[in-house]
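Help: why these numbers?

___
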Amino acid sequence: MITGSVLQENDYGYLTDRLNQAVRYLEEHDLSALEDGTYVIDGEDIYMMLQSFRVEAPIDAAYETHRKYIDIQYVLEGELELLIGNRSRFIPAGEYNTEQDVQFYEPRENDAHVILQEGEMAILFPEDAHKMICFPKTSETVRIRKAVVKVRV
């Protein structure tokens, strides 16, 4: 896992070419002008899903990993909380779905807790089991908008 901000003047030269291309895409494009949906960046090697949702009740999603793609979770609006741990410490919940490139896992506790603010990202590798959580702090609806960039391994 790597966390950081695309708003900073960083040199991401240490990333693979595909990861670097994906991060640069986030940095160089006005994603707020785009509607939710899937956008091709570089064929099947890199694509992006823009997603918006409103949270009224707590979200505690299932842990998941991906074998074919690295996830870049990038926050456009709101705050995104992730729990992350090494997949070797998890018990699979069902079979790996090859079509959707996802393996779900049984719940567990005591993993890394990462809070991403607007303009921040987390790069999640195939060994990083991760899940989104959201516990609204007030009775108001929380709006979250994020980009999930999928980068082929």
Summary: The chain has one helix and twelve strands. The longest helix spans residues 17-28.
